[in-house]
Amino acid sequence: MSRAPSGDLPWLILQLKSQLFALSASHLKELVVAEQITPVARTPPHIRGVVNLRGRVIPVVDLRKRLGMPGAPEEADAFCALMAEREQDHRKWLNELEASVKERRPFTLTTDPHRCAFGRWYDTYRAENVWVAGLLRKFDEPHQRIHRLGDEVEAIKATGQFEAALASIERSREKGLNLMLSLFAELKVLTREAIHETLAVLSIEGAVVAVTLDVALSVEKLSAEELPSGSGARPDGLVRRVGRRSGQSQPVMLLECEHLLDGARVPPGPA
User: Fold this and answer.
1) Are residues 123 and 222 in the same domain?
2) How many domains does the chain have?
3) I want to staple 14 with a disulfide (CB 3.0 to 4.6 A). Which of 5, 53, 213, 253 is the partner?
4) What is the radius of gyration, based on Cα positions, of the chain?
């Protein structure tokens, strides 16, 4: 296939997670909101399904999966599953604290909010979505408060006031833990609602296909250069060149559209 010189045609700059990619704008027909994608049986993992676009059924390529990344819905599911585990950790933590009082034994779980599984994750995780990041900041105070309770209860136990220790735990369960649980529930809902994929509808060698994008940033002309072997070029031919935006250092990986459906030609269904 002949290819126009790299600087002659504009490119659609898009973002997948924190990486930049580009599709030749010569293939672009339109951008639409990704809605009502219907799964298709017995297709490769990177074929999300089909979408009905004004009466025409066209295949949808999950561009993240095509590039070896987790798909956005799967990534959200994994995040929510992780938060469910951390939520259960704190239920068990408080139950174990209560059991230590009733059984008159030392509490052996960590009282340092930075050393529990959630604390270690929380201290290093950086949310890409601003709303998720804002909600996560609300965890800080109740999470620290719950872990302080461990030291407070141990001090009360040392005085022999076991009923007072149990009452303190119950107050924390009603306030601190319940607040944490409500934040976890809100976080899981927000994480799924934060998925706002765009479909780029492309015409490639006479076929029409849609690909999922996290964010479509702009249409620009790019200077481009071939990638040397082993420095980003893909053996499947999907990425061979890197583009440079004027005045910016972050590289843009240029996608060869004709390879998007390699080995996965999905015939359009009935309209």
Assistant:
1) no
2) 2
3) 213
4) 26
